[in-house]
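During the no-cost extension, the postdoctoral fellow (Dr. R.K.) reprocessed legacy sequence entries with the updated structure-token encoder. One reprocessed record is reproduced below for audit purposes.
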Amino acid sequence: MGGFWDIFDNGNVRGKCETNFFHIYVYDDLPEIKSIDIFGYNDSLKGTFMHEYLHYIQFVNTIFGISYGTMYNYYFSCCVDYFFKNSNIDIPLNILSDNKELSDLIKKYKNLKGSESSSIEIDKIEIEPNEIDNANKEKRAIKVKGINSKTNETESFEFGYLCIVENMATIFQSFFDKNMQDHSSVPYKIVEIICKNRQITDKKMIFSICLCSLMYHNPAFGFFEILGILQTNPSYDGIKLYKHLLSAEIKHKECSSIKELFHYFIDKYEYNIKTAVCSDLVYYSKVFENCKLELKNGENVLLRLMYETDINSKESIDYLTDFYGFPLIEANNLNLMAKIPQSNDDGYLDIANLRGLEMIINRLTNNTQDKKCPMFDKCYGLLYNDEVDNKFEMSLECENEQWKKQEKCLMSAALKKYQFNKKTIVQK
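Re-encoded structure tokens follow.
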């Protein structure tokens, strides 16, 4: 499965976002409080968290993000179907070899991703005249030439969706952490470099251009389409640009506008997640309803907060995270998840179901000799911490053959849900 998973991190390895399971990792200690209070974090920690949180929004509230997630959940559904239909389960799991449709989908998204790094720092971009249209026709990233004006060095690389989502998240991070560490030009600054070459320097506008680009199936091509719309309508701010895009007409067998297409994809995505986790959604169903509500109103709550409020205020952060919801948050010292109101500190079952499936997939697709549960190090680290309540009980099976474990934990519960306790497991 090498190269299939796309996990976004902030370049300084201080956090990452597993977009397909709505799961944020923060490689730091978070305050020992039961509620999620991002405003109370220091600037550096807040910036890291909001960078990863923005990735979560990108993949629940844009057409590209949702179509990407739908493809992943199709894969997860194929895995679940395999679990239930087969009495023998092979590790490592190999679903792709017998599924050409899924393999082709994965190849399609890889072709759109673009380069992850470059060997030189870049401050100028050159693009061949027909390259943007060719990339759109061939459904791939755009080939560009990066230039370092100080050294006259050049390097060719691919401008794809990775440059857009990462530069967008880096800009968002800067609203919360004014002194954040510098990032490399690829993929974290390329959008700003292209915009600067076109005399666009306002960060809110660049952020809006990125958001609109992610409403295209090929975001890199969409990026230059959006620049064309902005050139025709120079008075637009980000909010007006987004409204303009929502009303754009498209050719689709079931939808006549981007607004309708977006709604269609949200419903499809929600259904695919339900199929993968084999249960209804409660918490994330509310998140998707909010996304459809803002669509109905022809707006984007994130853009409105960014343009009309101080996005770094407690009121704005609380409104933003309440509207789009929280993914599961995993820090060095604790895990945080949304709680059911007026409950005894209970979390939502669909969040736990997604985490359980994530652990199973990660364990079964691991091609290394490591046979430990994905939560082994975290559980072991908390085992002798008297300040932590409700620790999972560990056993020898945590190091191997987790499907034989009798003690209750999230991993053993998830494995029993998919009937692994009734299967013959073959580890190659």
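The chain has two domains: 8-336, 386-427. The mean pLDDT is 91. The remaining legacy entries will be reprocessed before the final report is submitted.
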